[in-house]
Amino acid sequence: MASSSRPKKPVHNVHNGVGQLRIIGGEWGSRKLSFPDVVGLRPTPDRVRETLFNWLAPYIGGAKVLDPFAGSGALFLEALSRGAAQGQALDASNVAVSSLKEHLGTLRCTTGQVQTADALRYLQTQAATEYDVVFLDPPFNQNLLPTVCALLEEQQWLAADAWIYTESETAPSTLGLPGSWRLHREQKSGRVYYALWHRLLESAA
């Protein structure tokens, strides 16, 4: 989850400046991990993650995943637990990145990489790798989502047959995302919209 201002979500098990997230399924299912109680940094709720990974179940095994706004790492760790072959996570918060690195060490995970980086700059300047699944949960109220999605397309960060998950404060139909993306599933929880998009180019059809 991103670590900037956004509509508040319920906070569970937060005490002494530390919160807990639970990995739901896969190799590390039921493992509980702490995350720093940084303002705005909250894991995607368990039930939303469970729904998302039910949607992604046929595609997550062996996938290369990218999480440019990793925050607590809930989505990133869930993907690796469920069989993603390789993952790259980014976050602008040093505290969040340090915590996620510790989790990868605790889990003895060597297939996930995490670094402190501004997502937009990273996508603009780094050599692109094609990812099969991308999680996009940018800070709200900054109009970041359309910009990030455009960069993923323009800089060739996506596999031809890619899946993209978005969290937004407005309905998916209003986001103006790339024309090659098709809305596969959507859900709303409180004031937050969750959606899964399928990028399918003609050449991959």
TrEMBL record:
Secretion signal, residue range per the UniProt entry: none
GO molecular function, a single term: 16S rRNA (guanine(966)-N(2))-methyltransferase activity
EC class (word): transferase
Keyword Nuclease listed: no
EC numbers on record: 2.1.1.171
Keyword field: Methyltransferase, rRNA processing, S-adenosyl-L-methionine, Transferase
Domain of life: Bacteria
Catalytic activity: guanosine(966) in 16S rRNA + S-adenosyl-L-methionine = N(2)-methylguanosine(966) in 16S rRNA + S-adenosyl-L-homocysteine + H(+)
InterPro entries cross-referenced by the UniProt entry: RNA_MeTrfase_RsmD (IPR004398), SAM-dependent_MTases_sf (IPR029063)
tRNA-binding as UniProt keyword: no
Pfam families in alphabetical order: Cons_hypoth95
Function comment: Specifically methylates the guanine in position 966 of 16S rRNA in the assembled 30S particle.
Protein family (similarity comment): Belongs to the methyltransferase superfamily. RsmD family.
Stated name of the protein: Ribosomal RNA small subunit methyltransferase D
